[in-house]
Fold:
Amino acid sequence: MIEAYLAHLLVLVCIYIVLAVSLQLSIGFTGLFNLGHIGFYAVGAYASALLALSGQPFWLCFLAAGVFAGLTGWLLSLPTGKLKGDYLALATLGFSFLVYAVALNWNDLTRGALGLPGIPKPELFGFAFSDTYSFLALAAVVAIASYLIVQRIASSPFGRVLGSVRDDELAARTLGKNAARTKSIALASSAFLAGLAGSLYAYYITFIDPFSFTLLELVPVLAIVVIGGLASLEGTILAAFLVVLLPEPLRFIGFPSSVIGPARQIIFALLLLAVLLYRPKGIGGKVELD
Amino acid sequence: MLQILLNGIIAGAIYALVAAGFALVYSTARFVHFAHGAIVAGGAYALFFFFERLAIGFWPAAVLAIAVAALLGWVCNELVYKPLRHRGATPLILLLAGFALLVLIESLLLLIFGADVKVIRVLPVERGMDFFGAIITPLQVVIVVVAALLLVGLHAFMSFTRLGRSLRAVASNKVVAQIRGISVEATYAKAFLLASAIAGVAGILVGMEYNLEPTMGTSLVIKGFTGAIVGGVDSVPGAILGALLLGVAENVAAWYLPSGYKDAVAFVLLFLFLLFKPNGIMGSNKGARK
Structure:
């Protein structure tokens, strides 16, 4: 029993790792203050769930989730490419609200507030990931792969272009780098990975509704990124464990779930504030937000 | 059609109070005070607590609600924003901190008052009056009149009093204001007190006209800053105009679209203005960032 509970927590850690390392790609490595990450996560989850419910195989749904989310990210980057700092933050935040409103109101496609139940468990090469342990293995593979992909991008020549766009866009352009295209690629790749996380979530819970993708869901992800430290992937992994596991003892003290929900958010918000106030670079951050 | 316009103006009057406070902080301290919506919610819940739970009568409860809101805004500034500014934090970090504060205050409200919708009954429910074929309730007349008086008062205050002039001085040039002997930090503190007191009034009006929910702050701050950006974020009269436009646009859209999209209207407007007219209708070029 306790093992299954631990495995469940680790699956959540894996999903949050995918979300947080992909958010690092836009916020930490490229300096794009993207608050629309939950929107990409939702697009991925819905794309994957709808395809899975129509009988498509797991690998196709999973990849389609990434591709749909990535395309959305690319489209979003076109109009917002020129926005900076808090204006970009507000515009991307607006985007995630739009996704939420569409998920809630496009009843013919998403069934609105009723949500999409009965998403089948994933199957790959005839093997069904039907229990928590096998799903954990799958989620861990995706989390490690995302980590390696982002690390690979960050340490590649392209990663240095990303950093130069973050630190001094004018200089990057003077050196002949196409800053707008660089930012588009960064946002699209970041969204691609968030879409994969969405697909994992949909397959894991087997039910999605719009309320899983509200602004509140952004709080733990942002907390992980800020606590981990910008552009620090090791810090992000540590922070993901910390943020997912820290509120869990609340359950054992015997609080009712009506208390645990807000108490979790309070813990995340206080953590976020404490890091911003006392340790602005987080656990292993290399750059400060600006 | 007149009814739609009238409903728009009533909603817009409340948004205008939120937007005016938001723009007041933005124009003086130059950052997105995201927690402003939570302060409105705090005011509304304070009214609920004093009026419905303690039953101390409407006027004392209203005065206390305004005081609670003003205090809440002041505390946000003293405990979070001020230390961050001392550290030289960028507007983006302040935005993030404001987001954390918003989540913190909303979760506290949820914890204290519970998730169920609260109703404040100050005036007996009356049948609306006929106004050239449109229906308007006495309460709605009160809302529009109070909002209009308060906004005119604010304008006079900003134009003719010493504090109003020092607020505008800090807004237009911090360094020069400091050289002329105005304490910038003290002015920020007063801007927060003033803006939050107005937020308290907005909270009272929201509480009387609509129902209370812990998450109302998020949607209100979005309406507030959309109004502010549409009208011109560094101009308080502009913010009021923008908020009225938003109120009307939402109600017109709700006539043609499923009502669930009403909240998305703010974002579409926000998006369009950020992209095409980031200074807003009445904003100056000076404060806007590209």
